[in-house]
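Lecture 7 notes: from sequence to structure.
We start with the chain below.
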Amino acid sequence: MMFHSDGTPTYNVDEALVALGFGKFQYYVLGYAAMGWVSEAMEMMLLSFVGPAVQTAWGLSSSQESFITSVVFAGMLVGAYSWGLVSDKYGRRKGFLITAVVTSVAGFLSAFSPNYLSLIALRCLVGVGLGGGPVLVSWFLEFIPAPSRGTWMVIFSAFWTVGTILEASLAWLVMPRLGWRWLLALSAVPSSLLLLFYGVTPESPRFLCLNGRRKDAQNVLEKIARLNGTKLPPGILVSERELEEHGKNISSEGSKLLGEDKSSEGLESNFGGISSLLILFSPRLVRSTLLLWMVFFGNAFSYYGLVLLTTELNNGNNRCGPTQIQSEKSQDVSYKDVFITSFAEFPGLLISAATVDRFGRKLSMSSMFFICCIFLLPLLFHQPPELTTVLLFGARICITSTFTVVYIYAPEIYPTSVRSFGVGVASSIGRIGGMVCPLVAIGLVHGCHQTASIILFEVVIFLSGICVSLFPFETKGRDLSDSVLSLKTTDEEIQL
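Predicted structure tokens for the same chain:
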């Protein structure tokens, strides 16, 4: 236990959250964050259905159809970078408020698009709003006690799967009867619900404490204690930075370290695009940042590729197989296959929940990447539709597991001062993977080059697994850091 200069005991946010436990308050926070995650999943999943429908309705080329998907990822690239900055400077609540407004308004208006260009512009704006997803991840993460963080983040991630299944079900019901415009309009409803309940959402106490708003942070923690029926530790709340300063004053070695990292501390006090980016490339973070970017790119490329492959390899428009299946019911088969493979995400989540706190983040991710490669190998050659669905089901299990764990690992490696920005930029790099995927990999399938497409997926997924193995440290059970100075950057340091 640490003591204040006047002898009063002190505690930080991590110690407070452990004492308060996971209770009623966190369930409310989970419900709100989950609605945002469901919203993003639905908006992303509908891309599998809207593109082919609009292509038929407006007589678009294959490249124009692919661009409807790619432009959403382009918007997310901008949004993830921007909302991460807003969130780290002005608070998590303001970050996801703006994203909810942009997503819901642009999503609803896109249902009334009179032509291709207006649809492209509005879907790009939807992407900008969806780029704020990592803000909700960071916000929810900062309310969870460290010992149970992995498990609860997996449960949170399960709502992405709920969103994909809801969208697949909605498309199956709406598309044959009402068409793609109704699907776009109805899919915008969950993001609108975020606005409805925004007024009762709390700010992250970790963010408040870091920014000198200790009284506000204390109020949030006291509210958690009341709702959970628990008590805060005795003493006064202090920020991690104050504890660091106390340690430096009594340690000559700490003074030397302060001299070494003075530039990093200065950067943290200057929130902005360039300074925050420089923190990500500081000596303590550069290796983790670059590896994380590669993993996010590979994960997004593979995940959205598998979703799109489900419709491309098993529908009536696929004329490259040994037999041509052309029927009026081909589109129904497409909905059915997407619906079935969406359920693959539940086993993926269960695997994540079983392994993330037991074997750690790194082993959980790397093993699933390599197993995914095995599932895709038979698809180097044309397979019967039933076997294709089974193999894509298995691959989807694995890639869902890796996507779930990387969204737990990413916020854990960054300090609070740049957490949303760091995860946002990594997510932006992932969006580049999602943006490139339909233009390259799915373009190869359209061009009857299925083998080349699957080889591309194999290479990307395998390299992603290698990158995970090279991460410098494991975050299982580790407290979150508030500043660069407090970061432990290797497993050896963490053990010490």
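Points to note: The first strand starts at residue 2 and ends at 3. The two ends are 18 Å apart (CA to CA).
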